[in-house]
Predict the structure.
Amino acid sequence: MGITKMDHVAIAVEDIEDSAARWVASLGMQAGGIEELPERGVRLCKLRAPGSPALELISPLGDDSPVARFLAKNGEGIHHFCFEVDDIELALEELKSGEADLIHESPVAGAGGSRVAFVHPQSFNGVLIELKQKE
Ligand code: CO
C-alpha cells in the first residue's frame, strides 16, 4: 500500500470562517487560507499544530455538495481521515483487488493541487478514507 503518514483529519462544519477563527483563538492552531474546490463542491481550511497531522475544516460549496448531504444527515463532526501514499494509482489498484469499494477509481483534484481519491466508508468500519499522492 505504501502509506507514508496520516496527512489530515477532516471535520465538516456549517460556517468555515467562524469555525476556523474559533480553533485558532481557542487552541492556538495556525490556519491557512480558505480554498475552494468547485468540482468537488467543497470549501476547506487547513489548521496546523506542531508535530501533528493537519485538521481540515470543510464546508459545502454549491447546492449539490456532498458535504451539504453529510451535514444534513450527520450534523457537524469528523468527515474523513487522509493517508498520504507514495503511489496513489498502485494503492487504488491494490484496494480494488482487495474488493474495497472505491468512490474514485482514479485520482481527482484535492487541496493545494494534490491528487486524491476516496474509499467508501463501508470498506473501513464506517470511516470515509482519503488517499493523497505524496508530493
Ligand atoms: Co481531506
The domain at 3-133 is CATH 3.10.180.10 (2,3-Dihydroxybiphenyl 1,2-Dioxygenase; domain 1).
